Here is the input.
Amino acid sequence: MPKVILSMLSAALLSTPVFAAAAQLTDVEARWLQAGAAVLAYAKQQQLPIDIIVQPQAQPGAVPLAMGFDGGRCKLVFTMRGNPAAEDVLQAVPAAQRALMIEAMTAHEVAHCWRYAQGAWHSVPSGFQERTPDAAQPPEIQKLTQELRETRREEGFADLAALAWVQRSHPGEYGQVYGWLRQVRAAQPDSHVSHDTEAWLALAASGAAFSEGTTPFEQARSLWKQGLQAAE
Here is the structure.
């Protein structure tokens, strides 16, 4: 069965029952898309090259929302069908706040696309000194360690961009989103060290940490640079 691919042009239609039926979305998929619609509309304004892909195959335990890249375009992938744990990340969130957390997750993924579109994926600012690899370790371990660092940096940037988006769009609810995100990161098993973003989250306990008058991505970049050395 082919993937269901939705154009970014459809973002404005996500709240209509006709759209959900036409795209053959499940209730969960339609609800997540609707919750992230404002972020996706903003991404379109920023001319980010995003395609939305809904996986039709059952993939139990898969990450429900992720960003991939292919052919110079970003792929926002929903993997929720046959995936009972898809909404586990929201279990502790009151029903009235779940759409807000999904919106923040969408902003996190869109931030990955922004980095990719900027040609900055896995790059670091000029002058940043990376930790010297441990020459005593086998080359494959050195390579894995570097890949983990690169992933952690991108996750840190995306977490900050999501918080910058919340501060921009829902400043009165910043504290709830921040507290939830800290809990999600703290609850991760040791095997998810690539998603340990504590060094960056510590810089954004208040929405006042983000400067005004710029995009959420640019706001995140400023704090992200500050946290890079601490994350090493």
